[in-house]
Amino acid sequence: MSLHHETLATLSRKLAAREISAVELAHLYLERIDGNRDLNAFLDVRPDVTLAQARAADARRKAGDAGPLTGLPIAHKDIFVTRDFASTASSRMLEGYMSPFDATVVSNLATAGMVTLGKLNCDEFAMGSSNENSAYGNVLNPWDKSAVPGGSSGGSSAAVAARIAPVATATDTGGSIREPAAFTGVTGTKPTYGRPSRWGMIAFASSLDTAGLMTLSAEDAALVLSAMVGFDPKDSTSVDRPPENFARALTEPLRGRRIGVPKEFFGGGLQPDVEAAVREALGTYQRLGAKLIDISLPNAALGIPVYYVVAPAECSSNLSRFDGVRYGHRARDYGDLTDMIKKSRAEGLGAEPKRRILVGAYVLSHGYYDAYYLKAQQVRRLIADEFRAAFEQCDLIAGPVTTSVAFGFGEKAADPVAMYMSDLYTIPGSLAGIPSMSIPCGFGAHGRPVGLQLMANYFDEARMLGAAHQYQLATDWHARVPAGF
Amino acid sequence: MALSLDDVARIAHLARIEITDDEARRTLAQLNDIFAMIERMQAVDTTGIEPMSHPLGGGQRLRDDAVTETDNREANLRNAPAQQDGLFLVPRVIE
Question: Which residues, 6 or more positions from A473, have their beta carbon under 8 angstroms from its beta carbon?
Answer without folding.
Answer: none
